[in-house]
């Protein structure tokens, strides 16, 4: 019987790289909006759009993660049921009449 392994967790280096790239991108957009040669209301509109985009990206990532976790649990339960049926099956037992 083969045992399925869970996905390996993200390494610290991957987490740091993801956090740094997010921070750098956010700072770059904020600086770009700040130095944009337009009126204040245009900067405000762009800043609100960036804020909405950032929060919706976090929400989407959480929804995707939750769906993957849910599918993982369901597949583990299904696999446990199959393993139980296979372990209880006796191919040499005479069929009941």
Automatic annotation (TrEMBL):
Highest taxon, organism lineage: Bacteria
Keyword tags: Membrane, Transmembrane, Transmembrane helix
InterPro entries linked: YiaA-like, YiaAB
Transmembrane regions: 12-35, 41-61
Keyword Membrane: yes
UniProt record, GO biological process: DNA damage response
One CC-aspect GO term: plasma membrane
Domain called YiaAB two helix: residue spans: 14-66
Presence of keyword Transmembrane helix: yes
Pfam families: YiaAB
Full protein name: YiaAB two helix domain-containing protein
Annotated organism of origin: Amycolatopsis decaplanina DSM 44594
């Amino acid at each position: 019987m083969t045992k399925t392994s869970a996905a390996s967790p993200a390494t610290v280096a991957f987490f740091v790289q993801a956090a740094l790239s997010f921070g750098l991108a956010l700072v770059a957009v904020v600086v770009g909006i700040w130095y944009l040669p337009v009126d204040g209301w245009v900067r405000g509109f762009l800043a609100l759009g960036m804020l909405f985009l950032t929060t919706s990206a976090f929400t989407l990532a959480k929804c995707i993660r939750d769906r993957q976790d849910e599918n993982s649990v369901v597949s583990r339960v299904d696999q446990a049921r199959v393993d139980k049926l296979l372990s209880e099956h006796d191919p040499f037992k005479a069929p009941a009449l």
